[in-house]
């Protein structure tokens, strides 16, 4: 599937965070659709190290890349010597996905160092190489502002959201200083789909609830989950946005959601329908004060500025994902 006229064949493409969920899907997108593209994955891969919340410090996993035939450079974006390994290449496109993607890491120093400092280095590399820069921002830049979340009206409420917000500010300034460059930030909402399994507890509720149901358990949801709405976006539509971002009407940041919020209860119900179970729901109290009850991306500028058109409904996305959810059930996550 191709999304625009850009021929990525014979182009050199860097995907930071390419062993992670979105990055590995991008790597395979290019491999399958542009077999003569030179794709370079840069990722620190996972180690045993954990954050204070008990989650791993990085989720990149070699199993996401089995079958990938491009180059892999193992390195840390915090380390200038590692980043210098990329000087062996002159890139045409950089898709910058590497980050601490766990929104519940509250160590501000490590989040800011990893997500923000490295961005200067990668922007400088893009500028030197004349590369298009498409980077991952986040819906977390909006905090708990009321829906619809609209570009230009951000109010982050955790270090992760703030780090992405600062990346956006740096990108705006950089684009202003170097108007010949293409720099686009994509504010992903709740992404789900294949190759997210190794994000463990930070993977989407689609796979987590799917595996609860396959274990014969009622899916566990917060009370009032029919009223807790999120803008769930399928990985294929996220790939579409990344590709279209390479040729924007103008530089800037764009929302990547469907524009149609759905509830966590919807996910559980669709999964039970697809898996032909009738286990009910196990409701638990929501321990989070000030929990975001409703997200909905305003995608009007994404449509006009990128030509982005989300195609996959939650029903269709879950249906297509079921074989993969089944395949991964009970498999080793280490
Ligand atoms: N998945 C979502 O719903 C979502 C939503 C909003 C934004 N995002 C953003 O999209 C990007 C990709 O997210 P994802 O869901 O694929 O997460 P992910 O955790 O699977 O991918 C991030 C990758 O970056 C790598 N990484 C982390 N720290 C690194 C470091 N210091 N040096 C080198 N590599 C490092 C990890 O190993 C991992 O492979 C991230 O920037 C994330 O913040 C994702």
Automatic annotation (TrEMBL):
Superkingdom of origin: Bacteria
UniProt record, GO biological process: carbohydrate metabolic process
Pfam families: Epimerase
Keyword presence, NADP: yes
EC number per UniProt: 5.1.3.20
Gene3D superfamilies: NAD(P)-binding Rossmann-like Domain, UDP-galactose 4-epimerase, domain 1
Any one Gene Ontology molecular-function term assigned to this protein's record: NADP binding
Protein name: ADP-L-glycero-D-manno-heptose-6-epimerase (EC)
Source taxonomy: Bacteria, Pseudomonadati, Pseudomonadota, Gammaproteobacteria, sulfur-oxidizing symbionts
